[in-house]
Amino acid sequence: MEPQTTLVEGRAVPLLLEASEKAALLVVGRRTERHGRPVHGNGLVTHAVIHHVRCPVAIVPQA
Question: Are 61 and 27 in contact (CB under 8 A)?
Fold first, then answer.
């Protein structure tokens, strides 16, 4: 099966939750710093995804 890429506009959490219904894996990014300062923990989108999707989630820190 080929990977699928889709571009949509809107609020991230509802769109990711909808997309996760058909997904085998959901990959989300996570900031490691903001305005030059380290970020600890997850943001609102990552937090919501972790707690509400029904597929596996991979959280990838920014490079």
Answer: no
